[in-house]
Amino acid sequence: MANWLGYQDVKLGRQVFGNTTPATLNILGRLNGSYVRLRQKPAELDQARHYKRLGYGTVCVEHDARSLKELQAGFQSAVADPSLSEPHGDNLDLLGERFPCCEVGRRIENPENLPGLPKILNAKFWPVIEGCVGNSVRIVDIECYRTIAPPPKANFEVYANWWHCDQRRSDLHKVFINISDVTLDDGPFSILSRKDTAQALSSEEFNGREDADFEVQDNFPDARWIQHVGPVGSILVGNTQLCLHRAGLPAPSRHRDILVISVVDAAEPSPGFDPAMFTPGYGQTSRYTNPRAYGVIQ
User: Fold this and answer.
1) Domain-wise residue ranges, the chain
2) How far apart are CA 17 and CA 20, in angstroms?
3) CB proximity list for 194: less than 8 A, separation 6 or greater
4) Which of 1, 31, 50, 238 has the smallest count of CB within 10 Å of its CB?
5) How many CA atoms lie within 13 A of 82 on its CB side?
6) CATH topology of domain 2-279
7) Is 57 in a helix, a strand, or coil?
8) pLDDT tens, residue by residue, 12-36
C-alpha cells in the first residue's frame, strides 16, 4: 500500500510540478519557502530570480587560500585513511562482484571534522548563498567524497551518474564546492534547468533513471544546463529536487573531489557551523521505497 501511494505521489508531482519529486514534498517545500520569505522579507536580487527560474546558479565567494589548502590537505589525508573514509557509490555489491578490488569513490566519514571547513563556511559565505536562493538558510547535512573513473565495462549506475531528481522536500538546496580543480575530463556535476527538466520528463526520449544512454545535448540541443567545472573553491548551488542532475564519469586515471553542503530555507537565523544542529534525513520522511516495482521514474 505504501509503495502504491508513493507511486501516485510521484506521478502527481511529475504531472503538476514537472519533476519526479513526490507532490507532497513539492508542496511542503514550497509552503516552507513562502513562510520563510514572509517572515524574513528578503530583498530579491537578480541572482535569486535567476535561481528561482533555472533551479541553479553559480556564486563567487572569496575563500581564504590558507583555509582552502588546509581543507584539501585534510581531505587527502582522510581519503587515504580507511578509518576516516569508506567506499562510495551505488550498487557497490554488484561492482564488487563484477569488478573485484575496483573502487569508484571514497566518502569521508564525519566531514564536519575536516580542518579548515569552519573557516570556509564563515560569515562571508552565508550571505552569498542566501542571496542566491532568495531565503535565509540553515545547514542540514555535509557530505564530502571523491569520484573515481569506473571500469569501462560497467553498464550500471556507479554513483548517481544517471539523470534523476533527489525526491526530498523542495525547500532543500545543495551547495557544491569543488575541492579539486575540475575539468570536463574529471566528471563534473551536471544539472538541467527546471523548465527543461519538465520537458525531458514529458518526452519519449527520456526513460528515467534506468536510461544509461540519455544525453541532454543529443536530445535537447537548446536545453539550459550547466556542468560544474572550475578551480578549487568554485561553487554551484542547485535545487536537486526540482532539476534533473547527475554526477559525471571521470576519464581513466582522473577523479573529482567535492564538498556538498545541504541547506534548507529557515525562518530563524542560522546558528552557523554547528554540527549538533544538522539533520541529515531532512525531507525524506515521506519518501516511498522500491519505486521500480511500479515502474516509477526516479
Assistant:
1) 2-279
2) 8
3) 18, 19, 53, 54, 55, 239, 242, 243
4) 1
5) 1
6) Jelly Rolls (2.60.120)
7) strand
8) 888 889 888 889 999 999 989 888 8
112 Cβ contact partners less than 8 Å away, ≥ 6 residues apart: 142, 273, 275, 278
Can you read off the three cell numbers belonging to residue 107?
566518502
pTM of the model: 0.89
Give the whole-angstrom CA distance, residue 75 versus residue 257: 9
129, 263 contact by CB (below 8 A) = yes
- Distance (Å) of CA 80 to CA 76, 146, 236, 295: 6, 11, 27, 40
Cα–Cα dist 71/167, whole Å: 30
Which residue reads 519518501 in cell numbers? 287
Tens of pLDDT, residues 196-248: 999 888 876 666 666 556 777 777 888 899 999 999 999 999 999 999 999 99
pLDDT at 184 over 60: yes
Residue from 23, 40, 6, 64 nearest 133 by CA? 40
